Amino acid sequence: MILSKSCEYAIRAAVYVAYKTHKGEKAGIAEISEAIGSPMHFTGKILQEMSRQKVISSIKGPNGGFFITDPTSVYLVDIIRAIDGNELFSACVMGLKACSDGKPCPMHEQIKPIRTQLLIEFSKKSVYELVQEYEENKYFLK
User: Fold this and answer.
1) Residue 141 near residue 15, CB atoms below 8 Å
2) Residue 65: helix, strand or coil by DSSP?
3) Which of 1, 85, 121, 133 has the fewest CB atoms within 10 Å of its CB?
């Protein structure tokens, strides 16, 4: 696993919220939690963080819920950075603080192209594209 469990749930939640947004609807925490198979309290914390990071939006009240203003502009990299930070794309695989191009760890040269490719791939795929794939293939999140 390269992403944290929180990040995996965040991606599934964002895709579900984008799916509901695409249908012209908003989704509440309980509904999202059920759809992605995550505990409600945990889902709430993830949604709150994504909202704070402006990956998703929310409105309170009887007609409220979570939505994504423009699902075509939210990419997997945005979700990963909001939940896990940038470490997947920049941190030393051995956990060394001084690892860099100038002072590489023993794994630096092997891992650097992999990290770069992950950044490229996660930057190419929008949440909206995942929703479209869902609609075409009828897979879902749990």
Assistant:
1) yes
2) strand
3) 1
CATH number at residue 96: 1.10.10.10
In a domain, 22, yes or no: yes
| Encoded amino acid at 43, one letter | T
CB 15 within 8 A of CB 130: yes
SS3 content of the chain, % helix, strand, coil (to 5): 60, 5, 35
* pTM higher than 0.70: yes
Residue 27 pairs in a beta bridge with 66
Residue 95 counted as domain residue: yes
**Helix pair 76-84, 5-22: axis angle to 10 deg:** 140
Q: Which domain holds residue 126?
A: 5-137
* Bridge partners, residue 126, by sequence: 75
Q: Token pair for residue 89? A: 């794309």
Query: Would 142 be classed as within a structural domain?
Result: no
State how many domains the chain has.
Answer: 1
Q: Are 117 and 1 in contact (CB under 8 A)?
A: no
Half-sphere exposure of 27 (CA within 13 A, CB side): 25
